[in-house]
Amino acid sequence: MTTIPEYFRADAFEDDNPSKLRNAFTADWLMAQEFPAVNYVVDGIIPEGLTLLIAAPKIGKSWMVLGLAMATSTGSPALGCVPTKAAPVLYMALEDGPRRLQSRMKVLNVRSVSSRLTFITQVPRGDMLATIREFMDRHPGENPVVILDTLGKAMPPAVGGETQYDRDYRVLGGLKALADNNPGSSVIIVHHTRKMDGADFLDAVSGTQGIAGAADTIMLLKRSRHESQASLQVTSRDAAEGEYILEQAGTGNWVLAGGSRAEAAKAAMESRSVEGVDTVMADVIAAVNQTKQDVTPAQVSALVGSIDGKRAGTYLARAADAGRIRKTSRGKYASVNSVESVESGNEDLDDFPQFHTFHTPTDQDGEAA
User: Fold this and answer.
1) CA gap 222, 231 in Å, rounded
2) What is the pLDDT of residues 263-294, one digit of tens each?
3) Burial class (CB in 10 A: 0-12, 13-18, 19+), 67
């Protein structure tokens, strides 16, 4: 069993000293400490701490976290290919009952289950924090994982005089403290998106900024109705920010497109680059993305087949102006990012493509480029 380091203990600085600075520490003390490496629930995607998974209703987020719970409890790959370490898991499935959970596990084609996975389907609103604390206290040093599905089913009411923001930050702050006081542990909160999207995907978090502000990691799952593919956008204090394309197989399992984080990130980059464009522009961008070397308008014309070199040059210039591809030199173009350096099984987070914001230019007739 792992011993909790002295500097992580909640009472590490408690003594009879009444000074308001009793919890302060010096820079030389800080630099002399040896902190453990960040523990990942899902390698490179979900680190320890408080994680918020947000998505619109009925698009598969509960299927996703059920799959994560089963993978983490057995130490098997999550999302089809990403390594996990076996850990005790509490899945607070507050929108489901035992019958539905068993049915979904059968649909997911579960071959083996672990006693490390514990379910609970009813928790009084006032008992949410105490329930999570008790589970973590039972598994000290074991990197326990708690999944709360959903926050709305367990969110306690505001106390006298609290604003909604104060309530949100108090509750989420309490959840974060539970994770922070148990190094290596993780609390994953499933929450709904607001109805109106903003320019920043963090604006999609339903409720006040007190919810998003307390989280260490925020993941947004987006999928169009009746589509098998979805995008997973990740922003985190400890993990690399990125975007991945996921696919939901007939068994209900969510898996990374292409069978690796690198390929799923590449698919997301390519999907973003053709978002909101017409068919010809999409073909031109796809031709650039699929080519490992710089390309000329003539080469793109040959690859696309439906336009000549002059029109290809026009489309390439417009795509570069919009940030969908990049111009490398006079008359030559390349994809915005390359993930060729990320090798399967040895993926360096620093090599992953980061978020890019594209604007959709319009021509003189007002049509999107």
Assistant:
1) 5
2) 898 888 877 777 777 888 888 888 888 877 89
3) buried
3 state SS of 192: strand
Please say whether the beta carbons of 42 and 68 come within 8 A: yes
Query: What is the DSSP track for 122-181?
Result: ---GGGHHHHHHHHHHHSTTS--EEEEE-GGGTPPPPPTT--HHHHHHHHHHHHHHHHHT
User: Is there a contact between 211 and 202 (Cβ–Cβ < 8 Å)?
Assistant: no
In 3-state terms, what secondary structure has residue 210? helix
| 188-226 tens-digit pLDDT | 999 988 655 544 555 566 556 778 888 999 999 988 766
Among the listed residues 2, 40, 21, the one whose alpha carbon sits nearest the alpha carbon of residue 217: 40
Do 123 and 135 contact (CB within 8 A), yes or no?
Answer: no
Query: In angstroms, what CA-CA distances link 163 with 166, 168, 288?
Result: 5, 9, 51
Could you give the CA distance from residue 129 to residue 256 in angstroms, rounded to a whole number? 32
Residue range(s) in the chain whose domain bears CATH number 3.40.50.300: 46-259
CB contact at 8 A, 220 and 54: yes
Phi and psi angles of residue 111, each rounded to the nearest 5 degrees, phi first: -95, -30
Q: In this predicted model, what pLDDT tens digit does every residue of 74-107 receive, in sequence order? A: 999 999 999 999 999 999 999 999 999 999 999 9
Query: C-alpha distances in angstroms, 220 versus 16, 69, 118?
Result: 45, 18, 25
Helices 279-290 and 297-304, axial angle in degrees (round to 10): 110
What class is the 270-351 domain? mainly alpha
The pTM for the full model equals 0.75
- 271: tokens are 């999907």
Q: How far apart are CA 109 and CA 50, in angstroms?
A: 29
276: left (phi over 0), alpha (psi -120 to 50) or beta: left
CATH class of the domain at 46-259: alpha beta
